[in-house]
Design brief:
five-stranded mixed β-sheet, 260 residues, alpha/beta, 8 strands, Lambda Exonuclease, Chain A
Amino acid sequence: MSNFLDAIKELEDSFDYLPANNSELQRTEQWYKDRLPCFSGSEMFKLMGCTRAAAKKKWDDPQKILSFGNTAIKYIYKVAQKRRTLIPDMDIYAKSMEHGKDNEALLNEQLLKDGIISSHKEHGFVKFQNMDYAGASPDGEVSHRDIQMAQESKSTTSWDGHYERMGQPFDYKHKDFWQVTAEMIALKMNKCLYVTAYPGVYEQYDYKVIELSKMHAFALIQRLKIANAAVEIFIQEYPAKYINECLELACAEYVTVEFS
């Protein structure tokens, strides 16, 4: 773990990349440590990438569960190497994240002021129940119209970014679908308040309540089980086997579970 902590310390010393009003539970040393060896919410969409042959199948089809495209394989490799070496990607510290996090903190205050939410509870990295290798970092747990739900807020810098989030259906093809699904699983909730601010501001925004799709939650959990099995084989056999070979073995060992 020393390589990981040294990397964080060096970056913290070289520039102040953490916004002053950012969540005290996220982008901290502990948050990075918790998240490092895991499949995490913001990148779950990569894990769900499948081959062209399976693209039109539904996510309750076992054939699609076992179909991993190049994007998914690269992500599994990334998690495997981070877990094996405890060395993080350097791009996770990009200063470009600062604007979004600053604005999202102000956006939360605006939501409280406008009465959209009546309470807000911060969370760090929340692991899935009985799956210590996967989790998510929701922007909060809120009360909206007296219903407790997860929260995911997005700050945009252009109307193109706003379109990607609010201008099209929130289905499995949506930019943030798998992230939001992971956050609801992590918090054991079936709803999420999804908020997107207008470009460059926090006082104006759109929001919608997203309902958890049980079929897609099931698919995500099954994929995580297979992917984690591949990671464990890779680490055990390293450097004898490539990640795609490990994934093939994990798929062969997977006991198909039908969605019901």
